[in-house]
C-alpha cells in the first residue's frame, strides 16, 4: 500500500510574524520558512505505518513555488521514499485548489491512505483535508490523535479529538486522515537519512499537466494586525466601578483582587 | 568537623605552594603575615588551626546569621539537597575595618533615593542574599536601587567615607558567589538602571545602562537587525553590567570573541564616588592607557559599571544547528579542526558533552528527547553556523557533515529542520549550565536533582581537555559521577562532579587536585566564571605571584578602603 502525505511550506512556527506595511499580506521575505508542524506529524505517522509493515511506500507532495523543494527535501530526509512537487507559481494557492490538485494526484498515484496536517499555521483554514475527502468521496478521520491500521481488513481506526472529548471512528481504506498535535512527536532528520535523501527523486509537475485549473473565487483584500491590548485600569472603590459601568464602559472584564480593603 | 576542614585546607595550601610557579617556603617554618591562609587568625609565628566551629551545627535555612555551618541533610520529602552555605567554607572573618550600618546611613539613603528604593524588607533581602546556585548566603540588611549614575556615585561616596562594604549586584546569576554579600555588605542593585540610551543603526553601536537584561537587549536589537555578541543560558536574568564585570564568555564566544573586543566604552563609578566617563563609541582610540579593560572582568572589585557601549554584530538570517555523535574525544578534536577549516567564519558555536551529561539531561529534564534513541554514543557535539544565505549555508553544513561521517569522525548526527528543533537541541546543552533560579529544568538542575554538584570551570589545551575527566573518575570511583561538557571551540571545560550529598571527603579528593592538574597543564582554574568568593584564594594556580602582587596594588589604588565587593577575587593575604 502507498501512503501519500501532503506537506506545506509555511513561516516557521517560532518566528514573530509581521504584517507588510501595505497590508497586502504578511512579511515572508527574509523570514525563516519550514514545514508546517502538523504536516511533520502527518509525515511521521506515515513513516511509522510504513515501519510497522502496513505500507510499502511513503510519497510526500507539496503545492507551491520553487523554494518548496526544500520542504520536500526535509520530508525525504525524515524518511519519505519519494516526492512530488506541484509548481503552481508564486501566488498562494487556496485550499480548494490544493484539494483539486491532490485529487488529481491521488488518481495518478492510487494510494491507500492520504494523510495531511489538520491545518496550516499560516492560514489556519482547516479545509484541505475535508475538501479532498469530499471530492474523492473517501471517508475522513480528522483531528486524529491515534491511528491504528488493520492491513488485512483494510480498515483504519482513528481516535479524534473533538470538543466533547475523544471520538473513535472506523474508516474503510482508502481514506483521508488529518493529524492533530498529540498524535506523535516527529523524528529528527539524521545524517544517514539525509545522505540517502540525496539520491531520492523529486518529480516536478504543473497543475496543467494534472488538468487542474487553479482559479480562486477568493481574494485577500487586506491583512491587519489585531488591535493592541490596552492596559487595564485599577479602580479603587465600588462606587467608582458603578459610575464607570454606567457612563464609560461598553464592554469590560472585571478582575476582583482578593485583598481589597 | 570544621577543625578538620581547616587543617585539611592548610595541608592543601602547603602542597599547593610546592606546585606554584615560584618555590616558597612551606607554611610551617616561618610565618610572615602575607602567607597566612585566609581566614585563620593572624597568629604571627606559628601556623595554627585555631578555628572555632560554631556550637550549633543545625540551623534553619532561612536564618539570617551568616557564616553558619549548617549540617548537610538529605531531605527525603523533597528529594533535594540543602547545602550548607559555603560562606563558612571559605573561613574568612568579617573584616573589622568595615563599619556597621546605622540609622543615619539609612536616613541618608532614603532621603537621596526615596523610600521605595531603599529595601530592608526581609523577603526581598533574603532573595538578594542568596546566589543562583543556593550555595552562598550573606546577611545584608540593606538593598539599594539607584536609578542613575549620580545616585550610584553618591552612594559610593557615602559608603567610602563611612567604611561601609558594598556588593554590586546585577542579575545575580554568577556561579562563584561573587554577586552576593559574604557578611552584611550593602547590596547595590543595578536593576533599576535598565534604559537603552541609543543605538547607532549604521555601525551597530549600542549604549545602554548596566541594569539592562541581556535578553531584553537582544529583543530590542533583533528589531533593528542586530544581536548581542554574547549569549548565555542565563540571558533571561543576567544584566549587561554583570556580564561586563565578569567578562562573560558564552556560547558565541568562538564567533564574536571576548567582551574585551566588543566593549567600546564604559562608564564606571569608583569606590570614592568618582565617575569615570570612558563611554567611547569609537572602534579605534589609541590615546593613552585603555583603562576600561581593567574593569572588564574585575568582578565589581575595582568599580561599579553603570553604562556600557558595546559593538553589536548584524543579525544574520540563516542559522543552522546540528547535533552530532562521536565515538571518542579525539574525533571531537579532529572535528573541531575540520570545522574551523571547512566551515570557517560561519561557525557560531561549537559545544560538546559526554554521554554521562547527555544521560543526565535526558533523565531529569522534562520534554527532553534523545535525537539518537537507538544507540548511545560517547560524545555529543553541537555545531551552529550563522550566515546570510540559508540554502547555501545549509548545503555547506550538510556537505561538511556528510564528509565527516564518511571519514569516520562522526558516528551519527541530526540537523535541526526548524526553529523548534534547534531550540530543543540548545535546551539540552544550554540548560546544562544555566537556567533561572527556582526553575528545575536542564542539566544544571538535572545535576542538582540527581544529587549534590561540585562545579569547575577550566580552560585547558584542547588535547588535554577531557583527560581531567578521565583522571577524576578512578579517583572518586563509585562515590561520584564525573561529567564533562563545555565550549570545546574555546578550550573551556565545565567539570561537574555529582555525588549523593555534599561530603568533605569527596571534596578533599577533588580539590586541590583539580586546580593542581590544571596549573600543571598551564590552564586556567576559571575560564569564564571568574574567581568570586569560591576561588578567591586560588588565583596562584593560574597567575604568578608578581602578577597577583600588581593586581593587589591596583586594587589598593582604586579602592583604598577595600569596600568594593570585599573578600573576593584576590586572596585576603595579598590585600593586607
From TrEMBL, chain B:
GO cellular component, one term: mitochondrion
Keyword Oxidoreductase attributed: yes
A Pfam family annotated for this UniProt entry: FAD_binding_4
Catalysed reactions, semicolon-separated: (R)-2-hydroxyglutarate + A = 2-oxoglutarate + AH2
Keywords recorded for this protein, A-Z: FAD, Flavoprotein, Oxidoreductase
Record's keyword annotation contains Flavoprotein: yes
Function: Catalyzes the oxidation of D-2-hydroxyglutarate to alpha-ketoglutarate.
One term of GO molecular function: FAD binding
PROSITE patterns: FAD_PCMH
Residue span, FAD-binding PCMH-type domain: 136-315
The enzyme's E.C. designation: 1.1.99.39
SUPFAM superfamilies per record: FAD-binding/transporter-associated domain-like, FAD-linked oxidases, C-terminal domain
Protein name per UniProt: Probable D-2-hydroxyglutarate dehydrogenase, mitochondrial
Cofactor(s) annotated in UniProt: FAD
Gene3D superfamilies: 3.30.465.10, 3.30.70.2190, 3.30.70.2740, Uridine Diphospho-n-acetylenolpyruvylglucosamine Reductase, domain 2, Vanillyl-alcohol Oxidase, Chain A, domain 4
Enzyme class: oxidoreductase
Family: Belongs to the FAD-binding oxidoreductase/transferase type 4 family.
